[in-house]
Amino acid sequence: MNEFDEEIDELEEKELYEHFRLVVDKGQSMLRIDKFLMNRIENASRTKIQAAADAGSILVNEKPVKSSYKIKPLDVISIVMATPPKDTEVVPEDIPIDIVYEDDDLLLVNKKAGMVVHPGYNNARGTLVNALAFYLQDNPFMKEKNIRPGLVHRIDKNTSGLLIIAKNEVAMTNLAKQFFDHSIQRRYQALVWGDLKEDEGTISGYIGRSLRDRRIFQLSKDENKGKWSVTHYKVIERFQNATLIECRLETGRTHQIRVHLRSIGHPLFADDSYGGAEIVCGPPGSSFKHFIMNCFEIMPRQGLHAKSLGFNHPKTKSDFYFESDLPEDMQTVIERFRKYAHFHQEQE
Questions:
Q1: What is the dihedral of CA 15, 21, 27, 29, to 10 degrees?
Q2: Is 94 a catalytic residue?
Q3: Considering the entire predicted model, what is its pTM?
């Protein structure tokens, strides 16, 4: 496998939950649904299926059922489960992680930019999962041979911010269903090139891999060329040649915010995959170029931070909401844009 193929595999979308839909055969005899599903879903243990039922994730004819439910001919079964374990060993590593909150069922991590979330062909060590495998080494759920223990969602390597980690099967399945149902509240802050015309708006379309470069994604109006995606944005602050915005995700596709903002001509500042790592707009001359190059040096990654996360606790059913501060590199660049814009406004 060459380096290019490794990069593709590293970027490959990994669904952290799966939606199954099955129609029971006419000749099927009555059988407990957990036993029935064990024979239909690859790598699904009875424990995993029972956890899905406990979380209300197994529906028969659109109604939740218990694992003891006995199926009947022509029953329509749909199920949302965490991805089945894969026979891949994760090496525990003593890597510092910023834990925002923790209880018996979950923990929230504020991931630094530059840290890969889960191991891949090109990064078997040094990932968040390696760190979690060490931190939670006494947790039975983490000892399963799973390349993504506890991960319910992910953010890109060079995006900072909040991630939720499940610490047991029931929490994993419950949170996975919340993501599947789009009931999780996720808000990002993004520094983008240019001055957006509107104070708020919505970007939607089908996201799929670029045919010219498989490492990146593109937006299409053709439903056959990707998965449906929706991002709502709102302007927080304008800096003449850049804008700080809030993005609220309705769906969670790979590179979604990066692809969406590029599609409207406002790529993320310093995003080298989607056109933001070059001067997109601004006055001509060496002064502005020097200013931008200095900002690129301070923040050599896309200006994107997963700032807030809201969800329903899988055990207590209470509504939880967390926020994290912008990292220092992003704060510094924003402050420089703020001062630059203020200075030039006074000169006009």
A1: 70
A2: no
A3: 0.77
